[in-house]
Amino acid sequence: MFRALGSVVSRHWPIVMAVWLFGLAAGWLFAPSWQAVTKPGETSFLPADSPSLRASELFREAFPLDYSPSSVVLICYRDQAALEEADKDFIKNHVVKRLNELALQDGSPINTIRSFADKGVGALLVSPDRQATLVVVALNIPFQDPRNVVFMGKIDKLLAQLGSDQDLPSGLQMAVAGVPRRDVIWIARRQPALGLSRDGPSSLSLSCF
Question: What is the rounded distance in angstroms from the CA atom of residue 26 to the CA atom of residue 159?
């Protein structure tokens, strides 16, 4: 069988090559988009009545402000000293304020923003040595949602603006982490039409100081 197939291919290879090229061109032109044949999220493929999706829906209905399929975390820190009052003022009056403005934009995936200034949970967002604190941005979309690519681009721009702010205290440093940081690269590699490099947005692999 394979001998006969090889013989046909060797004799008529121009025709075989043309068929393959035609098939490749047809697939390129008429294949459905990635979004049309896939669903974002780790559990979206499960039946609607599955325990995981049902529990997630009940949680969202009962605690809408606490529902967060994914999150972005901004780390504000000093290398060799505890955070100063000027650092905390900058975080409250610039970082959190700008994030709140971002949350008010149409289509923003931000659900809640938590920082050290929040009662109760705020104390858990400060490191024991007082050298670092977290600003947690809870999102209402799954981490593999393509909208996270656009949103992380906005976070990238925001960090760049904060890094050049005249009110930024000397020595205060900032970095970004969180689930979308890793998985925006996953999305970018599978959706070239978004115009991203295969390494993902630069802000996802660099700290912004």
Answer: 43
